[in-house]
Each structure stands twice: as structure tokens, then as C-alpha cells.
Amino acid sequence: MQSSPSPPEPAAIPPAWLQLHADRIRHIEHVPARAQQLADWPEWVHPTLVQAFLQRGISRPYTHQVQAAELAHAGQHVVVATGTASGKSLAYSMPALTSVLEGASAANGRGATVLYLSPTKALAHDQWQSMRSLNLDGLRVSAYDGDTPDDERSWIRSHANFVLTNPDLLHHSLLPSHQVWSSFLRHLHYVVIDECHAYRGVFGAHVSAVLRRLRRIAALYGANPVFILASATAADPAVSAERLTGLPVTAVTDDGSPRGPSTVVLWEPPLTELVGEAGAPVRRSVLSETADLLADLVVRQTRTLAFVRSRRGAETVAAMTRELLREVDGPGFDGPGFDGPGFDGTGFDGPGFDGPSFNGTGFEGPSFNRPLLDRVAAYRAGFLPEERRALEEQLRDGRLLGVATTSALELGIDVHGLDAVITAGWPGTRASWLQQMGRAGRQGEPSLAVLVARDDPLDTYLVSHPGALFSTPVEATVFDPANPHVVAPHLLAAAAELQLTDADFGTDGVFGSATRGVVEQLTEAGWLRRRPNGWFWTRNERASDLADLRGIGGGPIRIVEDVTGRVLGTIDVGAAHSAAHTGAAYVHQGDTYLILELNLEESVATARRESLTYSTHAREISDTRLGTVIAHQSWRDVDLMFGEAEVSSQVVGFLRRRIPQGTVIGESPLDLPTRTLSTRAVWFTIPKALLELAEIDEADVGGAAHAAEHAAIGLLPLVAGCDRWDIGGLSTALHPDTGMATVIVHDGYPGGAGFAERGFEVAQSWLRATRDAIASCECRAGCPSCVQSPKCGNGNEPLDKAAAIRLLDVVLAGAPDA
Ligand SMILES: [Zn+2]
Ligand SMILES: [Zn+2]
After folding, report:
1. By the 8 A CB rule, do 622 and 744 touch?
2. Does residue 721 contact residue 748 with C-beta atoms inside 8 Å?
3. With 90 as the cut, is the pLDDT of residue 354 above it?
4. How far is the CA of 778 from the centre of ligand 1 (A)?
5. Partners of 741 in the beta sheet?
6. Ligand 1 centroid vs 324 CA: distance in angstroms?
7. Ligand 2 center to residue 793 CA distance, Å?
8. Entry pTM
């Protein structure tokens, strides 16, 4: 008997290439192929619908689609949390479209209606196209958003039975004028919430309040819809879905869709000779490394998408890649197949190169013989639809081989089935990363994904701890539905829609007992009027205008272009201090602007579009007073708390760092007022005896705690799915409120955003990762990849990397599972 051969390496990466870069590769994960698991169409699915799916080439659904569809059809709220491109839309289409088709025989053609919500207009439009193309008799599907013309709106309200929209429209328009939607709402059978992992932080809290308002108004018309949610894979999808809707939700996580084998490479740029702040070594920039990789892959005829965080970064990567390829193409360029320097080409047989599609007719032959450097492009938000389609098509058919893009491509744009994806810097959440990786791999073909670390402690941790990426996710979709700052304006909006009553705050009430106190405060302050039959909104303004779903309110600063006077956007005051101060390099939709002046009195920042060769980083100093403790745990002698905190902070200056190298080229002071913030924090204290045990001298306690704090802020996104900029912190050798060495990490929003709370709940995983991130950086005394922070107001001093590891070791020694 012959022994079975070992599975083939994905063709995109020959072993020689891996050897060549061994010094940068921290880990290679071979993710095996997964066979599909099919199920039968449930009997109750409308025959017309089955026909339509068959025509689309779907002969049988996957198991997870049927599992979710069955639950929803039986009246249970369900969240499908499976991989990218696993066909989550079929899961909700089965019950939702069946009910619509069955209801179509009603007198008005609307025996049942469906409301579909997506976080972006673009995604709602994609879904609309896809639903329409099913050509179902009796389905009247419409996308309804801010751009929908008035006459169309009234038709939709009276006739559509499947409406696709977003939470903003629900909040500003549908709910406040629910009377004109009454016939739609009366028959509401299903609410579909797509990409529900996008609802996190303060935005998540807002959307959860909007959904509670929706449930209340649906009930007014006698409807009790079933919620079907679709999520990226995350920790505890059912818990997040329950928080979002306030309803019990069952999770379906067993993915039955097929997947080709993939190779995932975790890549860390090397340290260079350059010197940064406080003598720290500087890593080679993520953009330079990404350009090298992209050029390598293009030479190998590998169709590759590189995701870069900013448009400027994407354009830099594309330009650098073209420059590298110019050397490869050389003067004697003679078409594809050239083996660039540094490759021996052995064993390489790039997918998509020998493929029949390339020999087929119907392509412009010469395009494939263009110099390689012409087969690389940058793609960004703001392209016209036809430019977008042309680029997508060229990438699909192989005329383009390498595209550097901002995350604009992440949602709702049609590029799949590439050979490789490079992610330049951790994109913030696991969901985004998986979504990016999902672009590679065609019909069971092998694919390659490379994650290139930025100089950030979370990136350092991830590339050296692959378990965090490939085993059970620890990152949850986090928000706090009870934040009084968020809930208050929604209670006012709810009262304007229909008076609030005691029932809303009872055990079965949509708002729950915790928010009753907020209603009483609002009544006292004169926002609501109490009458025998409830609380009423009696003011003239529109209550729904008081909540801004995508911001935190409180006097937004307008950013205005100096030449045109055009308002580019608005930004909260707090964010303006650090991102739109005078002299800031402000990035708007990928374009860079120089902020000429931030005028706080007029609430305006003037900006000029400019191609800057540097980025700016605000420096902030802060002081934190600790308030009421909400929850507490003891790890032997270490106390961990979650509670209220009063943070006062001041942006005192900013650094300029050269792009792409990241070297510091200057620092300027700023004169901005101190701001105070009532928020929530997680903190821990380390008694003297433990510090002695850790052999940390009194003089070094400050540096140890400071380094631990920076890294802890950097690593909280690992468990809380937040951005490093959503949180802040403070550390001190002796805090007046605890009388001990204390490390504090707080939410950056009034009333908190749920991030600090999540850190408290999973403190052990979080602090263990913090410790390991510091230890796994090979620098000697601290650098931006471990303990230095770009926003430190103390110039990253003092920082004691080695003592921070010892400090976290003694803290973790007392943890429950230690
Ligand atoms: Zn380091
Ligand atoms: Zn600091």
C-alpha cells in the first residue's frame, strides 16, 4: 500500500520564499480545508423560493442555514455567527421570504412584512439587488434611506413588504412617524439585523436603545416580530445579541459551508538601526514591508489584495510596489513569468496563471503582457461606481495582480476568490480581519493570508500568540445598553412616540428596571411630564434629534475646508482635542488635511487639503479620581475593581512622525483647556509587600506601573473589540484614592462604553496577554511595539519594561486559575 502524500502547500508560497523570510515570520498556520455539510430544504420553505434558489445554483442549503432558519420559523430569536461568505443571508431569507410570499395573498398583498437593518447603506443596497434578482412574484422589496425620494417613500410605506434600511433611519424617521407606517408594522413578522457585530461601543448602546423602541412600537400595533441576527464569529454571540435586542437569543455557530485550505503567515517587521523616542529602536514600517510582500506576490502572478488602514497608506504601498517592480520589469521586460531576484522559482506554479481563464478568448490579450508595474493599483473609498466596477473586474480576471486598498473594500463590494490577502496592521477586530481574509480562496483552491504587525503591543501579541487568532475567540462585541447618557435621549424619543408607562420598566418591559431612575431624573429636570397614565414628551422640538447614534453628542466641532467652506464632517469635542487640534494631520475618508486652526469658541476647525509627509500624535496628560466601586474581585493581595471614575485630561502637545518610517521629526506644544469626563474604569492595586516580592525598588515602581498601563491599554481591544483610542488610563506609584500603586484603564465616553467592564470580567485573559505582549517584544528597554504609547503625555517616561513584566507576574500569581 502506498502511503498517502502529504497535503500540497498552497501554490502561492513556495518553501524557498518562506526560508528567505524566516527572520520575519513569527508563525505559519495551515488551516485545513473544510468539507461542506448540506441539509434538505425545510418542508415549510415556500416552493417558489426553493425554485428561485435552485435557479441560482443552490441545490441544497448548508446545515447552519437550515438550523437557523428552523429556529426562526419556530418563533425563536436567533443569531447566526459563522464565517465570511458562509451564506448567512440564505439563513434569514428562508423564513423571512416564505412569510412574505405566504402573506402576499392577503387583500393588500401584505399579510407579513420584514424589516432588514444593516450598519451601512451600501450593504443594504447590495442585499436589495440580491433580493430583487430572485424575481419572486409577490415580493415587494425596497431600500429606504436618507436618499429615497419622497414619492417613493410613500409607496414603500403603503406597499412594500420587505424594507431594507439602517438604524439611523429607524431612529430619525420610521419610529417618530410610526403612524404612517402602521400597516407595515402591524404585519411585521421578522426583523433581520445584518453584520450585528458592527454595533459595539457607544454606537452599539444607541442601536440597542433604538431596537427597544422598535419592539415597543411594534407591540403597539400588535406585532411581536422574530429577530434574526447575522454576526461575524466572535466570543459569546448569543450574549451580545441578547444585549442588543433585550430578548433571549439562540446562537448557531456550526459552519456547514466549505472552505479551501489556507496558509496564514504572521509577520513582524524587523527592528532597524533608526532610533525613536527615548532611544527606542524603530521597526521597519508596516507600509514598506507590505510593499515588499506585494511586489513578491505580483512577480509570482499571485492576485493579491493588500488592506492598509488609510488611503494615504494604500497609495504609498501601491507606489512603493510599482517602484520595486520597475526593477523587476527592467528595460528588457518580456512579459509575465519573470523570476525576480531572490526567488529560485522552484516548485512555483501560481494559481490563476496557467488557468484556462487566461488562455480563454474574450480578454484583451495585451493587458496580460503589460509590465508588472502597470498591473498594480490603489483602490479607495470615493471611487465612482464605474471606476470601482472596472477595477473589480480587472482584479477578478487577473489583468490587475496587486491592489492596495483601504478597508472600503471590506463591506459590500464584490471582490472574492483572490489568491492572497495581506493585512497591513491589525485591522482592529477579529471580525474585520476574517472579513479581509475571506477575500482570498476560490472554490476550494488554496489561499494565502499574511498579517503584518504594526509597532503596537496588540499586533506584537497577536503575531507571537497565534492561539489568540486561531482558537476560540476571546474578543466579544461589547457595549453597555444601560449607559444613562445614551439611554436618556432614547427614553425621551420613546416617550414622544408613545407615552412611557410603568410596564416599560417592569420585568417584561423593554427598558428594564435599571432605567426607571433615569426617567425620574428626566422628569425632575423638566424633560418629561408625569401624568396619571404615564410620562409624556410635551416639548416642541423633535425628541429624536437629541440622540446622535454615531457620536456622543455634546456640541460637535465642524471641520471646514478653508478654500471651499465645505463641511467635511463633525467630530466630538473630546476627539477634536486629540485629532483636530491646530497643526494636526487629519484624515477624512482617507484624504489628509492639515488643521490650520481649532477654534473651540466657534466650534470649528479649519482644514486645508495637503499631502503631508508625516502623521501627528497628540500628547495627553490626565488625572483620575476613583469613585463608587460597582464590582470587585480579590486575587490574593491584589484588588481588582470596576467602578466610576472622574477623568480630567489635557492635550498638551503633539508629535510629528515621518511616513512611512515612523521616525519622530518634531514636537510642538498646544494650549488646550482641561476636560473632565465621568466614566467607568477598571483598576487594580499592588500592595508594597508584593512589589518587594517582585524585586521592584521604590524608585522603579512608577516606571513599572506606567509600562504595565500602556501595554494594558494596548491589549484591552483584544478582549473588548474596541479601539485603543476609545480608552485611556493612568498609573501611579501611590494613588490618593487607594493609597497604593495603582493601574487604571478607563472608557473614553461619558457614562462608559462597556470596554472597561469587559476588561474587569476577563481580567485574567487580558492581563496575561498584556504581560506576554511585553515579554514577546525583542527590544531591550521598551519600544512602540510593547510599552511605549504614541499618546503618552509624559514623553514615555519613566518606563521600566523588565519591572512591568515582574509586576504583572506577581499580580497574575494570585489569579483564580493561576
Ligand atoms: Zn519593544
Ligand atoms: Zn504614559
Report:
1. no
2. no
3. no
4. 6
5. 686
6. 29
7. 6
8. 0.83
